[in-house]
Specification:
Layout: H1 2-9, H2 14-36, H3 40-53, E1 82-83, E2 96-102, E3 107-113, H4 117-122, E4 124-126, E5 138-142, E6 160-165, E7 168-181, E8 195-201, E9 211-225
Parallel strand pairs: 3-4, 5-8
Antiparallel strand pairs: 1-9, 2-3, 2-6, 4-5, 6-7, 7-9, 8-9
Length: 226
């Protein structure tokens, strides 16, 4: 009985007490690093595309849309000095930070940063993993085909698209259209070259199409406000 009692009360060796918490700490650090190196931007891009694709259409015709964005925020000041280079302003999620216009298809719509059902009711949405307007890379903006982007497929090569922000105005020229499957991330991924990509669902009478139409534009003018 005495031997059994001694075995039960025998203290844990000091090396074990020291090594155990160290190992646990190393494991926690390793897990944190693994999670931290996840390609965040790529994940956010895919998430935003998938989320936007699931949004329901809000109206049956583009002519019935009432633009709810604050247009006065982006009215051009004719007296403001501009330059080809300047600083972009990074918006907060859900913030309207631009107006998108195109005379060729009578398009004038507010642009919101990020994507949600409510934002897509009010205007177009920019994928938060894409380049901020005026910055380097691919600026990706989408809207519903039965609302603001109902006539997107009517844009032709050479048509001019403009984006007005609080920090400048940016012009683009349509260079091509493309049809792609919603699972294909080629046109919505970040790129080294500067461009604007507008996309929406391919029109379909019944149900939701698995295909998307993209309009790819190249920058022609950058006018940052001084």
């Amino acid at each position: 009985m005495a031997d059994e009692k001694n075995r039960q009360t025998k203290p844990t060796p000091k090396p074990v007490l020291i090594i155990t918490p160290v190992l646990l700490f190393i494991i926690c650090v390793a897990l944190t690093v693994l999670l931290g190196i996840t390609p965040y931007n790529k994940f956010v891009t895919y998430l935003n595309v998938a989320f936007s694709d699931k949004m329901g259409n809000t109206t049956s015709a583009a002519d019935d849309i009432v633009v709810s964005g604050d247009i006065k925020l982006f009215e051009k000041d004719s007296t403001a000095a501009t330059s080809k280079e300047g600083k972009v302003v990074y918006p907060a999620f859900g913030e309207q930070y631009a107006m998108l216009s195109c005379e060729a298809i009578n398009l004038y719509v507010p642009v919101y940063w990020g994507s949600s059902e409510e934002l897509l009711k009010n205007g177009a949405c920019q994928l938060s993993a894409s380049a901020v307007i005026g910055d380097k890379g691919n600026t990706v903006i989408d809207a519903h085909v039965n609302t603001f982007f109902a006539d997107l497929d009517k844009l032709k090569e050479g048509d001019i698209v403009k984006l007005s922000t609080s920090y400048g105005e940016f012009s683009y020229k349509v260079v091509k259209q493309a049809i792609f499957e919603k699972t294909d991330k080629k046109y919505v991924s970040q790129t080294k070259e500067d461009k604007l990509t507008l996309y929406t669902c391919v029109k379909q009478l019944l149900g939701s199409s698995t295909q998307r139409v993209a309009v790819i534009c190249e920058p022609t003018e950058k006018a940052f406000y001084n």
